[in-house]
Design brief:
By secondary structure, the protein is of the alpha+beta class. 18% of the residues lie in helices and 34% in strands. It has three helices and eleven strands; from the N terminus they run E-E-E-H-E-E-E-E-E-E-H-H-E-E.
């Protein structure tokens, strides 16, 4: 189901944040949306989530993603397009919880965007994947992307991409890889940080 953003409402720069008990700040789910699309997939949540984290495989099933490059642990560069048209942009993952949620923001200025994908277990033991995306246009582009026509167009693209992912992972039957890390506020969290390195030279023994 697609939900179009109301052009009369203010578009927030970023989702509001809330502190959790561990002192870390987490973003709340997007409230004002351009689109929201959900599909159900006949694989367990862990399998669907693990495959989703393999961004470099997106060109294998996507109709619009042509290439994905890992720039930094939380930043990827995406090339999308139709035919000979190409557009390259960088995305930063700001929140990531294994088997639950992944949120990102575009690093472009015109237009920027943000989004999130959620994974939930269905009654049948499969996975419901929900993608929400919000454009943050600048200048004259605000008139176009704020329209209901643009919202419906983006909703169709998002739903088609989700259905293509569904066919891809159900055809595989199992994930081709996984990244199970946690990200908070754009930083990878380390459960067991490495001890500080000694500045004393390590001499060979024997």
């Amino acid at each position: 189901m697609a939900r179009a953003h109301d052009p009369g409402q203010a578009v927030p720069d970023m989702p509001r944040r809330r502190p959790d008990g561990d002192g870390l700040t987490r973003r709340r789910p997007l409230r004002e949306l351009h689109v929201e699309e959900t599909v159900e997939i006949a694989v367990p949540v862990r399998t669907a989530y693990n495959q989703w984290t393999q961004f470099k495989t997106f060109p294998r099933f996507s109709a619009v993603v042509r290439d994905v490059e890992q720039v930094r642990p939380t930043v990827t560069a995406w090339v999308i397009g139709y035919g000979a048209l190409r557009h390259r942009f960088a995305v930063e993952i700001v929140e990531q919880d294994p088997d639950a949620r992944l949120a990102w923001r575009g690093l472009e200025q015109r237009p920027s965007h943000q989004g999130e994908v959620e994974f939930r277990t269905t009654k049948a033991g499969g996975t419901a994947i929900t993608v929400r995306m919000l454009l943050e246009p600048r200048g004259a582009a605000r008139m176009l992307t704020g329209s209901s026509v643009a919202a419906r167009l983006m909703a169709r693209v998002v739903r088609r991409e989700l259905l293509l992912f569904k066919g891809f992972i159900e055809g595989l039957g199992q994930e081709g890889g996984a990244w199970r890390g946690t990200i908070r506020n754009g930083r990878v969290q380390h459960d067991h940080p490495e001890p500080p390195r000694s500045r004393v030279a390590q001499w060979p023994v024997g």
